[in-house]
Sequence to fold (554 residues):
Amino acid sequence: MEEIKVSAYGFSYPTGEKPALKDVSFSVNEGEFIVVCGPSGCGKSTLLRSLKPQLRPFGEMSGKIELYGRDINEIPDAESAAEIGFVMQNPDAQIVTDKVWHELAFGLENLGTSTHIIRSRVAEMANYFGIHNWFRKKTAELSGGQKQLLNLASVMLMQPKLLILDEPSSQLDPIAAREFLENVRKINLELGTTIIITEHNLEDVYGYADRVLLMENGEVRKYLPPDEMAEYLAENEHGGMYKALPTPARMYGSVLKGKCPLSIVEGRNWFSALAAGKSPAAREIHEGSRPEEKTVEVKNVWFQYEKGGEPVLRDISFSVRKGEVCSLLGGNGAGKTTTLSVVSQKNKYTLGDIYINGKNLKKYKGKELFEQNMGVLPQDPQSLFVFETLRRDLEEVLKIRKLPESEISARVEKIAECLEISDLLSRHPYDLSGGEMQKAALAKVLLTEPKILLLDEPTKGMDALSKENLGLILRGLAAGGVSILMVTHDIEFCAKYSDHCMLFFDGYVVSEGSPKKFFSENSFYTTAASRMTRHIVPGVITCEEGEQICKSLC
Fold:
């Protein structure tokens, strides 16, 4: 039975130079699991928010969207709020109360549901998602994965017929993201709830799809089952969305032999069959040497947010060398972002020492640390924007340095072209998609010409080509002597573009090494290519290496 029908739908933002959505038409059957994918700015988030009237952005609309044959604009707000559930990208953005059990009951209380029914549903949902173990906790004490699971459970308490998720795992560590998406799949299989989800990282969610909706430039390009979509992209496109496919599908696409695998299990079996009777060469696993000059040196640092509270950083020591991309990995709440905050003087550490370019951090006064020395991309890029257009925000960075207007304009155009955001300069920063805003924020930071660059989740919300472009930019900066300290959950990106990796756990560094050594030795914090091929060819950590191996076997 047809549940959602979108007919010739269009949408334009007030400040947009072109429509965000154009003549979008597709339908979703009851109980289907639909994955929406496409490059940053293609209209995915705008489309998903258009399906939820209460969250639809302000702008001009055309066409029609129907839920079970009814125009969604004519469905009463209370009914629409209950029947169409929505989980946002940022776990903190959706939580409105201070306690877990308050949050679970909040939606039903607003609908005027009786206390008896609220208690019954809360108990049922808390047990279904395993929330009963932290039912009485404060929401502020939860990890990112727990917060997002709480958001999901709170929405499901309303018993929606349609569940929409806009990049729900983008801010979660790899293990938490996998667990969250497994819960979404569980809802689909066990409750029959229709799912529409968009994700840039397709590794874990792609195989769950009944159909994949591919968008480009605000239009629907293709709408196919996942295996057919993978074959279509492999045969018709050598970049763009092909690079966003899960590793098993990309490795299959490099040779197009057998049946397209969509999961690691299917990929391992497919790779075993491809390698049967052959002896592919193992990849060399070595530590590699690091540059000698230390630009950031952290020595035995401790930090806690409250006096007498539990330490968040426990005796951490590490260094970042000149011209090096150094990545911090680990679960949500491990201390990675806190580490960036003490290195950038946002928070003052309790014990230990930090040296920036050989000078004790405590001796840096005023703006000395940041004046053409250190740049910081925060976890929330929106916090960097204060003006009504992106162009003015970028220009303001250079006006502070009192540069000539002609030079300011030229530099803004150059950085915009480099990060592929030239067509966004006239837009309000808050109207940008997650990936577009991430690139815009990075542009603002790079205009300060930092020698040390601190990045907190720089690939969040970015499509595959944007990530590749960012990786090349970071490698170019490193080649020019810039030191880069990056917090990331993006294991695949880290494996491809980092020089040194560190795993954080419980507030300290538990292991570190070159990407090749680091990911080859890990079982869970490792890449899809490694998990898929290590039983036959140890040392493969990137999809590109896996594709080369596959081609050598044919």
Summary: The chain has 19 helices and 20 strands.
